[in-house]
Amino acid sequence: QVQLVESGGGVVQPGGSLRLSCAASGFVFSNFGMKWVRQAPGKGLEYVSVISYDGALKFYGNSVKGRFTISRDNSQNKLYLQMSSLSTDDTAVYYCAKESQAYSSSSLDSWGQGTLVTVSS
Amino acid sequence: DIQMTQSPSSVSASVGDRVTITCRASQDISRLLAWYQQKPGRTPNLLIHDSSILHNGVPSRFSGSGSGTDFTLTISSLQPEDFATYYCQQAKSFPWAFGQGTKVENK
């Protein structure tokens, strides 16, 4: 079955950087767009970034544009999120999620368990 | 950017009740809307995509409708396992956006 396992979260100081990873298995990773979605403590879901199945298209939420970079390695079945210039507003659980249909989709049918990023001095 | 507004933000209901949650988009999103359920401490689960298509394994008491800017999620007969927070999400254009969530609580 589909498995998405995030790693790389932790505590980082304001202005710092962090790289999140998501290891995927149980499906043909190279056929599916992938997303990062975050959830601040006690808050709702916020879209962070998307990357197309082939890595050619990338989009970002307004709050992270210019600071975060999404990438993928289809040979390793891995998704990444490079985060820089972090602020306390970036404190959240970060989920990687798989699009429901190959190549292009309008929903997310599998989510990892999330990795917590805490930005604090 | 497209904004999504859910109402109500919370609803108190009893087992067996019919529950309706609405979601409004700030512009026409056709039928490109999904609904998710999230229980405390758990990851979101896809319920419905493309406005009205039930995801695999989702009970038939859940249904979705709407197109354009106005959408509805209905739980026909609330079950104990349905107490959770529900989110809508538009996929018409990037950045995708979620509604702020509707918490279904036990009356």
Account of the protein in words:
The complex is a heterodimer of chains A (121) and B (107). Chain A is built from no helices and eleven strands. Chain A is mostly beta strands and 121 residues long. Chain A starts with a strand and ends with a strand. In chain A, the strands form two sheets. In chain A, strands 2, 4, 5, 6, 9, 10 and 11 form a seven-stranded mixed β-sheet that branches. In chain A, strands 1-3-8-7 form a four-stranded antiparallel β-sheet, with no helix packed on it. Chain A has strands at residues 3-7, 10-12, 18-25, 34-39, 45-51, 58-60, 68-73, 78-83, 92-99, 108-111, 115-119. With 107 residues, chain B is mostly beta strands. Chain B has no helices and eleven strands. In chain B, the strands form two sheets. In chain B, strands 2, 4, 5, 6, 9, 10 and 11 form a seven-stranded mixed β-sheet that branches. In chain B, a hairpin with a 3-residue loop joins β5 and β6. Chain B is globular.
Brief overview, please?
By secondary structure, chain A is mainly beta. Chain A has strands at residues 3-7, 10-12, 18-25, 34-39, 45-51, 58-60, 68-73, 78-83, 92-99, 108-111, 115-119. In chain B, 35% of the residues are buried.
